[in-house]
């Protein structure tokens, strides 16, 4: 007779195979083992399932058909189908054994092993999803798992208790099972249909103890003692199992158990797990032959099953040598080896091994998903050079510590342990907004029906930069208004917007989370006043919609002014993370974009960056680790953004996200946007490059320049977009990446203390000016007919020592002379943002980079105050700042005593004041008269 059949027939020993995979079940292999080899059940093995996913055409077909879903949903779709198929094959065994054999075991996610409530929820969900009487749900015997085992048994669910190593822990598990049965019986449940096994791991104990014995033997001075200790090797695990079986006999006897048995209860059988031999010096069937006894189960790995089939011997071994087992463990304790401590360590390691296996399994699914999505998912490739190893180490740390899951669980300890959990609404905003897609579509149709020719977003920072990307990337849509952005208080820019539109056919979108931000409020005041002049007070409000957080001052004002609509943001989302919320979607709908398609594109990246995707396959996490480690490991904290024509405004949005999020506490990433590309020699060793390449519109010059950077050893991240339609994916990728980079830096990436400081100082200056009629007078440190220069006393002293004299050029030269390797130069221009003014600033920054090999920024105020302004003030003290102001004809603001010229001047002064307070190297150049001529003169001085 086949030894496996004899094992069952003669010793009432159930034999389960530690294997389940769809191909194996479907091809009849499981059925054959049941019929021919005495197989009595199967228990899921993630490692084998992972291999099956990697090599099964059937799985490939199923994943292709499933399409773009969460990785965990794709896996469960396969796994549950497999478990159900296996359960159906084993159903005859289950019925013939009276519900004692023929089980399929499916484990609860190991990520929940330390959480009782989540284990309970997951086990109940899996039990319901599989919907087979012969299912056992596998739960680990951790301190958190034991109460879950009790409560699940009380629900009448069959439980396979796993990760048992210690006799004391086994006793706790057995009592939890008995407690659960008693509760189930009291509730009227049929306890005769409840089955359970307690999986006692065997060979791992010998592997751990033998190592400790080797150390003890090496330290022993008595040869006889060393020999006696040598004799313990390979015996402890079996001795431990035999004594556990003695406890089993005592626990499932006596009056308490008999009362349950009289109601039909079945004992919780001991199951021998980890029965493959790890030490080749031992018999390859050791942990089968020595553990044969009534009412037990042995989960046999395939190789061990083949060996036992070939030469295994069947005998009633489990109750042999019980006294010897006692002596073995006593001798072990006398030698100073604590078996309970070994068991505790093995439980911890076992949980981690389960996690490792689950990570590989989900990684296999994630990899297949990415392959099958093809160009439906923006592709990311890394060329990191010497940064490669630090990033790999970081990826492994994030995987092992479960940091991706903890991020999605809103665990503030991923960052600084402050209030981060309150600012993570953006993680789920895409799914939330999908449910509102019909409302956005209705609004879009309403805008089209009204015949608006223009829609103007009035906002700052996150409220304006995202919509700007949409307007510039997708352009006007047929039949819909052209989307414009106003995010400057420069009087000429306000005039330019008004001149470009027909007010009677213009819709204004006033965007402000708090409703108290100065700029959106003065924009609203101005254009609402102008609209009242043009269409009358009764109709003016119909030309406005508000996007603001519930209960804000903006909402109150919008209601009072009769705005057409009010769309709510989410309080748990900061402005710079808000583009996939109403702050981005309302402008998208107004300009005629398909919001549903927009969100579906974003959702592909959300799923790709999900908690169930291991960090090595998680594009957002991967990018964040590159950026964070580039800064902390190699001082490469200048994130240089490159983008193909057609999507090049994305850099300005990413710039504000990265800078405002990470630049604080003297740390941070300094994003470099719109800096013309150069040969590798122009750059210092403080750069990491991120290249967003549009397949349909790539620039050959950019391609060549990026390739040269790679070849020169600069770290480069390439992101390939099949078309503009996939741009929404990049919003979420960069949000995740920025949050992860913040975690690497050890800061809170969701606050903006120095932006707030600038806002406060600006409000103070503007309020005082409204009272006094003007801003306070200033005294320049140098002046001529074209320039007046200003700075604080500390900077003035430093610049004079560096050679600054009476002429403005000497001060500018001295300021640039302060630039050192690893610094960056930021030109902060509070002038009208237009191509004529941008050109000399771009030429100046190129000249500075070529001469100094430093990163450069050219920013227009006041818009940068709500973005990079945070990093400039709170980030690393590596910035050399040249603020540029000018004079422009004022523009009155209805209801206010002062106009836009005073607003922008107050903002510039507030900005400079905080730079000074932070001890930054800052100089202000005020241009008198013609701005273009002044910028040309400044360019020459900087060159």
Automatic annotation (TrEMBL):
Catalyzed reactions per annotation: alpha-D-glucose 6-phosphate = beta-D-fructose 6-phosphate; D-sedoheptulose 7-phosphate + D-glyceraldehyde 3-phosphate = D-erythrose 4-phosphate + beta-D-fructose 6-phosphate
Tell me which Pfam families the record gives: PGI (PF00342), TAL_FSA (PF00923)
Per the record, the GO terms for biological process are:
gluconeogenesis; glycolytic process; pentose-phosphate shunt
GO CC aspect terms? cytoplasm
Which family is annotated? Belongs to the GPI family. Belongs to the transaldolase family. Type 2 subfamily.
Enzyme Commission code(s) on record: 2.2.1.2
In Swiss-Prot or TrEMBL terms, this protein is called Transaldolase
**Gene symbol?**
tal
> Broadest EC class?
transferase
Pathway involvement?
Carbohydrate degradation; pentose phosphate pathway; D-glyceraldehyde 3-phosphate and beta-D-fructose 6-phosphate from D-ribose 5-phosphate and D-xylulose 5-phosphate (non-oxidative stage): step 2/3; Carbohydrate degradation; glycolysis; D-glyceraldehyde 3-phosphate and glycerone phosphate from D-glucose: step 2/4
Coarse class of the primary localization is: cytoplasm
PANTHER family the UniProt entry points to: TRANSALDOLASE (PTHR10683:SF31)
Q: What is the lineage of its organism?
A: Bacteria, Pseudomonadati, Pseudomonadota, Alphaproteobacteria, Hyphomicrobiales
Q: Where is this gene product found?
A: Cytoplasm
> Which source organism?
Methylobacterium aquaticum
Q: What SUPFAM superfamilies does this protein map onto? A: Aldolase (SSF51569), SIS domain (SSF53697)
Its keywords, alphabetically, are: Cytoplasm, Gluconeogenesis, Glycolysis, Isomerase, Pentose shunt, Schiff base, Transferase
What's this chain's function? Transaldolase is important for the balance of metabolites in the pentose-phosphate pathway.
Molecular functions per Gene Ontology: carbohydrate derivative binding; glucose-6-phosphate isomerase activity; transaldolase activity
Name the catalytic site residues. 138
* NCBIfam families linked: PRK03343.1 (NF002881), PRK09533.1 (NF007080), tal_mycobact (TIGR00876)
Which top-level group of life is the source organism from? Answer: Bacteria
């Amino acid at each position: 007779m086949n030894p496996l059949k004899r094992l069952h027939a003669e010793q009432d020993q159930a034999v389960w195979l530690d294997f389940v995979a769809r191909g194996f079940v479907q091809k009849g292999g499981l059925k054959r083992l049941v019929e021919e080899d005495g197989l009595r059940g199967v228990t899921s093995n993630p490692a084998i399932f992972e291999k099956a996913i990697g090599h099964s055409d059937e799985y490939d077909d199923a994943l292709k058909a499933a399409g773009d879903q969460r990785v965990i949903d794709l896996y469960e779709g396969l796994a549950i189908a497999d478990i159900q198929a296996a359960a159906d094959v084993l159903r005859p065994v289950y019925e013939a054994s009276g519900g004692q054999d023929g089980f399929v075991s499916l484990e609860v996610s190991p990520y929940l092993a330390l959480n009782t409530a989540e284990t309970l929820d997951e086990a109940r969900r899996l039990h319901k999803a599989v919907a087979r009487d012969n299912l056992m749900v596998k739960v680990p015997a951790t301190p958190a798992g034991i109460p879950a085992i009790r409560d699940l048994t009380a629900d009448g669910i069959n439980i396979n208790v796993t990760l048992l190593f210690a006799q004391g822990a086994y006793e706790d598990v057995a009592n939890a099972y008995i407690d659960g049965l008693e509760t189930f019986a009291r509730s009227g449940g049929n306890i005769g249909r409840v089955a359970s096994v307690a999986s006692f791991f065997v060979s791992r104990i010998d592997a751990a103890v033998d190592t400790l014995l080797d150390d003890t033997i090496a330290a022993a001075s008595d040869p006889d003692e060393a020999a006696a200790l040598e004799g313990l090797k390979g015996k402890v695990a079996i001795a431990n199992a035999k004594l556990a079986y003695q406890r089993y006999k005592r626990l499932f006897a006596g009056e308490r158990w008999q009362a349950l048995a009289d109601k039909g209860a079945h004992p919780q059988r001991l199951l021998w797990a980890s029965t493959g031999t790890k030490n080749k010096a031992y018999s390859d069937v050791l942990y089968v032959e020595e553990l044969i006894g009534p009412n037990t189960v042995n989960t046999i790995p395939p190789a061990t099953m083949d060996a036992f089939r070939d030469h295994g011997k069947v005998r009633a071994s489990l109750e042999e040598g019980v006294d010897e087992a006692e002596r073995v463990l006593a001798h072990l304790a006398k030698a100073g080896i604590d078996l309970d401590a070994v068991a505790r360590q093995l439980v911890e390691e076992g949980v981690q091994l389960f996690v490792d296996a689950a990570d590989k399994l989900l990684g296999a699914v994630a990899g297949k998903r990415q392959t099958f999505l093809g160009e439906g998912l923006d592709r990311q490739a890394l060329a990191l050079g010497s940064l490669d190893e630090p990033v790999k180490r970081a990826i492994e740390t994030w995987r092992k510590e479960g940091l991706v899951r903890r991020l999605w669980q809103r665990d503030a300890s991923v960052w600084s342990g402050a209030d981060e959990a309150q600012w993570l609404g953006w993680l789920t905003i895409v799914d939330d907004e999908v449910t509102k897609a019909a409302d956005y579509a209705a609004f879009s149709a309403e805008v089209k029906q009204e015949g608006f020719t223009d829609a103007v977003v009035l906002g700052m920072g996150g409220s304006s930069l995202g919509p700007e990307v949409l307007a510039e990337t997708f352009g006007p849509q047929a039949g819909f208004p052209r989307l414009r952005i106003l995010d400057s208080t420069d009087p000429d820019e306000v005039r330019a917007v008004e001149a470009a539109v027909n007010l009677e056919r213009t819709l204004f979108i006033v965007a402000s989370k708090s409703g108290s931000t100065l700029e959106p409020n003065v924009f609203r005041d101005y254009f609402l006043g102008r609209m009242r002049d043009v269409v009358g007070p009764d109709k003016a409000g119909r030309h406005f919609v508000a996007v603001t957080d519930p209960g804000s001052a903006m909402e109150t004002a919008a209601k009072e002014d009769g705005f057409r609509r009010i769309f709510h943001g989410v309080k748990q989302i900061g402005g710079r993370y808000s583009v996939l919320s109403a702050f981005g979607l309302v402008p998208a709908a107004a300009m005629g974009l398909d919001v549903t398609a927009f969100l579906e594109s974003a959702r592909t990246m959300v799923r790709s960056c999900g908690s169930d995707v291991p960090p090595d396959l998680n594009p957002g996490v991967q990018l964040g680790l590159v950026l964070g480690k580039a800064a902390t490991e190699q001082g490469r904290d200048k994130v240089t953004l490159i983008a193909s024509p057609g999507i090049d405004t994305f850099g300005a949005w990413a710039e504000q996200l990265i800078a405002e999020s990470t630049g604080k506490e003297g740390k941070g990433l300094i994003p470099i946007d719109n800096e013309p590309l150069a040969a590798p020699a122009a750059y210092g060793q403080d750069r990491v490059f991120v290249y967003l390449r549009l397949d349909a519109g790539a620039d050959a010059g950019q391609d060549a320049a990026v390739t040269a950077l790679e070849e020169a050893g600069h770290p480069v991240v390439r992101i390939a977009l099949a078309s503009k339609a996939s741009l929404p994916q990049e919003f979420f990728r960069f949000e995740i990446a920025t949050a992860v980079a913040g975690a690497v830096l050890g800061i809170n990436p969701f606050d903006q203390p120095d932006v707030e400081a600038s806002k406060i100082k600006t409000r103070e200056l503007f309020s005082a000016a409204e009272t006094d009629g003007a801003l306070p007078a200033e005294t320049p440190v140098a002046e001529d007919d074209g320039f007046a220069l200003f700075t604080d006393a500390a900077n003035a002293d430093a610049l004079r020592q560096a050679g600054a004299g009476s002429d403005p050029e000497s001060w500018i030269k001295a300021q640039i002379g302060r630039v050192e390797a690893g610094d960056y130069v930021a030109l902060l221009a509070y002038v009208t943002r237009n191509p004529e003014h941008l050109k000399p600033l771009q030429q100046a920054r190129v000249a500075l980079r070529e001469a100094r090999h430093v990163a450069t920024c050219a920013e227009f105020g006041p818009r940068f105050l709500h973005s990079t302004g945070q990093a400039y003030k709170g980030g690393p003290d590596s910035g050399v700042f040249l603020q540029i102001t000018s004079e422009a004809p004022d523009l009155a603001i209805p209801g206010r005593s002062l106009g836009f010229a005073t607003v922008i001047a107050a903002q510039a002064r507030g900005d400079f004041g905080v730079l000074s307070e932070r001890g930054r190297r800052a100089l202000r150049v005020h241009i008198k008269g013609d701005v273009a001529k002044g910028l040309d003169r400044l360019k020459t001085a900087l060159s």
